[in-house]
Amino acid sequence: MSTTAARSADDSDHLSEVARPSDSRRDPEVLREALHHWLATQLPTDTAPEITHVQLPEANGMSSETILFDASWAGKVHPLVARVAPADTTMPVFPSYDLESQFQVMSRVREHCAVPVPVVYWSESDPGPLGAPFFVMARIAGQIPPDVMPYNFGSWVTEATDTQRALLQHSSVNVLAQLHDIEQPWERFSFLRLPGSGPAVHEALAAHIRQQREFYEWTTQSGPRSPLIERGFAWIEENRPNDTSPAVFCWGDARIGNIMYDDFRPVAVLDWEMATFGPRELDLGWMTYLHRFFEDIATDAGLEGMPDFLRPGDLATLYEELTSHTPRNLEYYIVYAALRHATIMLRIQTRAIHFGQAVAPEDPDDLILHRAPLEAMLDGTYWEKIR
User: Fold this and answer.
1) What domains appear along the chain, each with residue ranges and CATH number?
2) Which of the following is catalytic: 147, 181, 253, 283?
C-alpha cells in the first residue's frame, strides 16, 4: 500500500473510532441482565422471556449505540437490535437524539409504503434500564456496504458484476422514489415539522438550512469556527432555489451504507434520525455526495475507486424514470450535502481533540477531511471531473 493510501486508510479508521458515542465497552452479561429485567416488564408474565445472546458490534455509529441480542418468548426466538442514545459524557456528535421520533418514523414508513424497514417493537424513554433512552427493532440478515474500509476501496460491492451493481443502484434509488411518493406526508409525519417551516419546498428548505446553521453554532460552542463552513452557508443562501412545489418526506441520511442488501436488493433501510421534509433533491444530493466523499478519498489514495457508480447524471436519469420528476438544481444539493457533512466532520474532529485522539491544527478548516473538494465546489471547479 502506498503512503498516501495508508494515510487515507488510517483517516477512515480514525473517523470510525472517534465517532463512537460510548466512552467504554459495556459488559455483555450486565446488558443481558438489564435487558432481561426490562423485557419482562414489556410482555405478559406467562411468556417467560429470556435473553439468550448479547453482542456489541466492533464499530458503533456516531448517532447511537447499537446492541444486538436474541430474545425468546412464547416458544420463539426473536433476533433484535436496541438503538441506545449516547450519554452526555461522551460529547455526542449531535445536539439531541430523539429516539422516539425515529421509532415513529420507522413505524409510519412501514405503514405507508413498501420500503423495507425493520419492525419496531418498543420505545423506552426511561434511561434507567440501559442508562439512556432506546428503542428495539427486529434484526435483519443481509450485507451493508462498509464504511471502514470504504466499500469502494475493495468490498463485495467492488467485486460485484456491472449488472449486479446496476441492480444495487436502481434498487437504492427506488427506495427514494417510494419514500417521496408517500401521500399526505405533512400530516402523517407532522412531528417532523421544523419551526417556521411550511409544506412548500422553499419553506421546508429554508427551515432545514436554519437547523443546520444552529447545529454549526452548537458545534462551535466547544470547538473552533470554520471560515470554509461559513463561506459555504453564505453560498447556500445566495444560490437557494425558490421552489414552490410541495415538499416530500425525506429519509435525510440517504446513502447505501445505511441499507442492508440481499442479492443486491434492499432488505432493510436503516438510520432515520435525519428524516425531514424537503425537496426530493435533498435525498438525491446526499446519496450522491456520500459516495463522492469516498471517491475523493480513494482518488487521493491513488486507488481506482468506483467512478462509474452513483454518478449524479445517472441518478437523476434513473430517478426521473421511476417517478416522472426531473431533478432540478442537483449540483446545489450536492454542495449542501458536502457542507452539512463538513459540519459533522468538524464536530467529530473537535470531539477527537477533546479526548486526546487528535491535535488541533493551526487552520481549523483542516479539521474537515473533504476541505479541498468543498472548496472546489464553492469555486465551481469540482464538477467537470465527475461529469
Assistant:
1) 3-138 (3.30.200.20), 151-386 (3.90.1200.10)
2) 253
